[in-house]
Amino acid sequence: MKNIDNKEEFLFGGATASYQCEGAWNEDGKAESMWDVYLHKNNYENGDVASDHYHRYKEDIRMMKEGGQNAYRFSIAWPRIIKNLEGEVNEAGIKHYIDVLDECHMQGIEPLVTLYHWDLPQYLEDIGGWLNPATADAFVHYAEVCYKAFDGKINLWTTFNEPKWFTHCGYMAGNYPPEHHNPQEYIQCCYNVMVAHAKAVDLFRKENIKGKIGIVMSTEPMYPIDDKPETLQAVRNADNYANNWVCDPACKGEFPKDMVEKIRSQGFDLSFVKKEDLDVIAKNRVDFLGCNYYGPVFVKANEEGDTCFVTNNSGTRFKGKVINRIKDWYEYTKNPDLPTTAWGTQTYPKGIYELLMNYWERYHTPLYITENGIGLYEDIAPDRIEDDQRIDYMDSHIKEIIHAKNDGVDVRGYFAWSPFDLYSWKNGCEKRYGLIGIDFENGCVRKPKKSYYWYKEAIEKEWK
Ligand code: BGP
Fold it and tell me: Nearest 5 degrees, angle CA 242-CA 328-CA 226?
């Protein structure tokens, strides 16, 4: 059961995001991103240097190769490519990613590239960001520039990383820029993002760009905490809120009808919806779906309490209670029988099997696990960093993926989050995910952890 039947096609790699690892925040003509401005303005820990991947990508890609990996998922920083509202192209930005892609190919590493992993150019945030449909048009222009510049060098493209998280955190929970708490705005942003996605896919096909195009979602498998009918309805509501509004339009060409009905019945204004947008969505289904999975979600009915979100961005130092509740929709709860990390994530390896079976059955679209990993406090001073907890986490999850593959799911790859330590949004660099440790205090020296060697050996020997 451990063995993968057609291993040649299976990708084993790691995933990163531009803002979280590149650094070089103001080099080579890069415009400011909304994260640069937001973190600087509030004096929060930022990604100005991060893992210094912008300067050290060759070393990092070489280490991926030496670590037995055959793929790398990364994102392109929009503010490096497009300089301003007029849409002018920054040739230095293009050159950087051509160099990165060439390095991948030279090392035999298959790139899987994300166009948007949350670093919106600030000049777009200044005109209303994702609330403004002009941002969707600007995204399509940016996508077109990338398609033309990198055509032939990328086989696996994705438009957005996790539309749910950056819209939810930016417009509902308010813990990411632009820190709003406004459901009406949230709904409009979600719509604009899915329209931008569909238009970018449409263009990809019209321009006959080489390769396949998909989207990456934050797959949060929802489990009822009991079997009461109101709990099952709450699970459906939570699934619509977290998952279905992204993967239904992306894979089936339409938003979930019951969700739209519920939003309408609650009096939200949907007058911004246009028939021509829905037509583009209907016509442009993805070639594959990327699923990021960290842990399961347990749901109960929201019986009392207004909509409220309290997030843990400070690990064990967090003294509050994590809350995720939408009035009349759902409420998150914990399963007392599952382990919970220092950062409040419950872990459940079987969840990755169940989500793969579920998504395959629902959409029959090829799947990739585009992120999976565990964030830990770690001392990276010792010569040998013994991250056995990460090894157990990855091993148990990968076994479940192979299990799903052997049970008939078309799953084509696994990307560990992350190949090396990087900046974690709002949590800073102390929440470490890497297979390679980075000494952020001392020139970003790279130090492979035990998991790096374990992954290499398992790819080469165990999963053959
Ligand atoms: C995903 C994001 C990543 C990454 C990861 C870990 O949602 O796509 O960018 O950050 O989660 O989350 P965090 O860094 O908040 O622990």
Answer: 75
C-alpha span between 459 and 262 (Å, rounded): 46
Half-sphere exposure of 96 (CA within 13 A, CB side): 24
Query: What is the reported pTM?
Result: 0.97
* Beta-strand pair 11-15/411-416: parallel
Q: 35 CB less than 6 Å from ligand 1?
A: no
Q: Which residue has the tokens 């209907």?
A: 282
Say whether 371 is catalytic: yes
Which residue among the candidates 22, 371, 378, 400 is catalytic per the annotation? Answer: 371
**Does the CB atom of residue 417 touch ligand 1 within 6 A?**
yes
Q: What pLDDT does residue 7 have?
A: 47
242 phi and psi, to 5 degrees? -90, -35
Per-residue pLDDT averaged across 238-263, rounded? 98
pLDDT, one tens digit per residue, over 293-345 is 999 999 999 988 999 999 988 888 888 888 999 999 999 999 999 999 999 99
Tokens for 398, please give them: 């990968």
What's the average model confidence in pLDDT over 373-392?
A: 96
pLDDT at 200: 98
d(CA 194, CA 163): 8
**Tokens coding 270:** 């949907």
Tell whether ligand 1 has an atom less than 6 A from the beta carbon of residue 358: no
**Which whole number is the average pLDDT over 118-131?**
98
Q: What local confidence, expressed as pLDDT, does residue 1 receive? A: 29
* Calpha distance 431→452 (Å, rounded): 17
For the question of residue 162 being annotated catalytic, the response is yes
Long-range contacts of 169-175 (CB under 8 A, 24+ apart): 169/311, 170/129, 170/130, 171/131, 172/307, 172/309, 173/309, 173/311, 174/309, 175/309, 175/311, 175/313, 175/426
How far does the centroid of ligand 1 lie from the alpha carbon of residue 425, in Å? Answer: 7
- Joined together, the tokens standing for residue 314 give 């400070």
